[in-house]
Design a protein that fits this description.
single chain; mainly alpha; Rna Polymerase Sigma Factor, Chain: A; 8 helices
Length: 186
């Protein structure tokens, strides 16, 4: 069942429809929140709950002609994150999120976890506009048009920010790898 049909069923009071919509979109809301909040999964979980509660409270405002359900939810997520950032004014948290591995090889798990932590740190130190472009387009697989709707900017701006973000990530990760090699020799 598509998102629009689920929204109609939610409007009719069907709880199972809301559960299905939640399951379908909670991961993208969480990814956006965790990366925009500096990697803190507890804060991201709070954002997820707030987003879906806000969605229910303002369900009548959703207009499919203005965008997809995912874009609408990510727009709510963006407002929640910006509100929290305004309240806290602390973007320096670089705590990583553990990513459990299905592999049984502890060395491979450690290597993968270290690489994941480096990427998360590199994303966390990007300027917020670049971080947002990476999180929406690369981590949530949104197309440029949908990302532009979420970010309230032009498609060209999304492309530009994404290009600059990728360049900064590449140079940041290369510098971190070089520094790691130098420190392991000495």
């Amino acid at each position: 069942m598509d998102d629009l049909r689920l929204v109609e069923r939610i409007r009719q009071g069907e709880e199972a429809a809301f559960a299905a919509l939640f399951e379908r979109h909670k991961a993208s809301v969480f990814r956006y929140a965790v990366h925009m909040r500096g990697g803190d999964p507890a804060l991201a979980e709070d954002v997820v709950q707030e987003v879906f509660l806000a969605f229910l409270r303002q369900l009548e405002r959703f207009d499919a002609a203005r965008g997809t359900v995912q874009a609408y939810l990510l727009g709510i997520t963006r407002r929640q994150v910006l509100k929290q950032l305004d309240d806290v004014r602390d973007e320096d948290s670089l705590d990583g999120v553990d990513c459990p591995s299905v592999d049984s090889d502890p060395l491979e798990h450690l290597t993968r976890a270290e690489a994941t932590a480096r990427v998360r740190q590199a994303i966390a130190v990007l300027p917020p506009a670049y971080r947002e472009a990476i999180v929406l387009c690369e981590l949530n697989d949104l197309d440029y048009v949908t990302a532009a709707a979420v970010m309230h900017c032009a498609v060209g701006t999304v492309r530009s920010r994404l290009h600059r973000a990728r360049a900064r990530l590449a140079s940041g990760l290369a510098a971190a790898q070089t520094a790691e090699k130098v420190s392991s020799r000495g």
